[in-house]
Write a structure and sequence with these properties.
InterPro entries: Cyt_c-like_dom, Cyt_c-like_dom_sf, Cyt_c_1A/1B. It holds the Pfam family Cytochrom_C. This is Cytochrome c family protein. With about 180 residues, the protein is mostly helical. It has a domain of about 100 residues: Cytochrome c-like domain (Cytochrome Bc1 Complex, Chain D, domain 2, Orthogonal Bundle), CATH 1.10.760. About 40% of the residues lie in helices and about 5% in strands. Strands 1-2 form a two-stranded antiparallel sheet. It starts with a helix and ends with a helix.
Length: about 180
């Protein structure tokens, strides 16, 4: 199971419970309010899955170890935002290039130097190593950051979305 699939499973199970555990999630009931309508409150408990808890704790520990502001990221949002990128990029170790290069090990390489990918001259000549700061500027405005590159993505305007995607990539592509 990939890290992103494991993270998604952990987030789902934390929210919904593990159907394989045999526990049932009861519809919570809250006390009746002044309007006479019932509100909902928890009644039952869910059995915990040690593997899910360990994976979630590991992910939380790894996130906390990232430098600020990435340690404050919302990984679920980062994964959600990254889905926009998956039509062009893969992130798994040894994964294929698509329209864009595989991003595994992105923060350990120089722009325009993923082996086997045909970059535009503008990116091959960019002359910088990928860092979270470079990726943030790139994601904000790819065409403006390196004029003449072939990436058609318009960018992520929201700074929190960029932070979340970068944290997601730091955790998914660098270990």
């Amino acid at each position: 199971m990939t890290r992103s699939a494991l993270l998604a499973s952990c987030l789902f199970l934390a929210a919904c419970g593990d159907p394989s555990s045999g526990s049932e999630v009861e519809t919570p009931q809250l006390p009746t309010g002044e309007s006479g309508s019932e509100t909902q409150a928890p009644q039952g408990t869910l059995e915990s899955d040690p593997l899910v808890e360990d994976a979630a704790q590991d992910m939380a520990t790894r996130l906390a170890a990232l430098p600020a502001p990435y340690s404050e990221a919302d990984l679920a949002n980062g994964a959600r935002q990254f889905r926009r990128c998956t039509s062009c990029h893969t992130i798994g170790e040894g994964g294929p290039h698509r329209v864009g290069p595989n991003l595994h090990g992105l923060f350990r390489r120089t722009a325009g130097e993923a082996e086997g990918f045909n970059y535009s001259p503008a990116l091959r000549e960019a002359g910088f190593d990928w860092t979270p700061d470079h990726l943030d500027a790139w994601l904000a405005d790819p065409r403006g950051y390196i004029p003449g590159n072939r990436m058609s993505f318009v960018g992520l305007r929201d700074a929190d979305d960029r932070r979340d995607v970068i944290a997601y990539l730091l955790l998914e592509t660098e270990l």
